[in-house]
Amino acid sequence: DVGGSGIQGAPVDLSKGSFAAKRMRIDTPAPSTPDAVAKIIDQIVDHFDDVRGDSPIGVTIPGVVTHGVVRSAANIDKSWLDFDAEPMLEKVLGHDIVLVNDADAAGVAELHYGAAKGQKGLVVMTTLGTGIGSALIYDGVLIPNSELGHLEIDGFDAESRAASSIK
User: How many secondary structure helices (H) and strands (E) does the chain include?
Assistant: First the structure.
């Protein structure tokens, strides 16, 4: 899980929907370029090498992701914009990966293991961290990349605008 202040990871027991080991966290590098972040992810993956096996690695990022390409970059370096991250991460990690929006991953987890399980109609899930993320689920189907928590208004990032109005 790549975040604005930290990158963390752990193996997950998909039959239970819980961590199979204690999470490892490393501060997000500054600047948080794709290469710098990939090196941190690699350290975390190596830490869990004894339990990882051949399973794919899920990587989550605070931004819209379509087919492995990062389309927005909330709280990470803008060099991620329009970057085809999946092949680069697979090369660095030496493993198949799936790259998705962080809130979407949390929403899917809630759909399978948590409060959204079995719910009909619209479920709105929010994540709170360095930024605010969101996932929309309708009748058990994720609507990907909803990103209601990171909006641009009049060409400015809403978080940056709010911070500058306080000064």
Answer: 5, 14
Return the half-sphere exposure (C-beta side, CA atoms, 13 A cut-off) of residue 88: 15
Closest CA to 83 of 63, 103, 57: 63
Phi, psi at 80, each rounded to 5°:
-75, -25
pLDDT digits (tens, 9 = 90+) for 49-75: 888 777 889 999 998 999 999 998 888
Per the listing, tokens 């605008």 go with: 161
Strands 83-84 and 97-101 turn out to be: unpaired
Task: Give the SS3 label for residue 46.
Answer: helix
Between CA 116 and CA 119 the distance in angstroms is 5
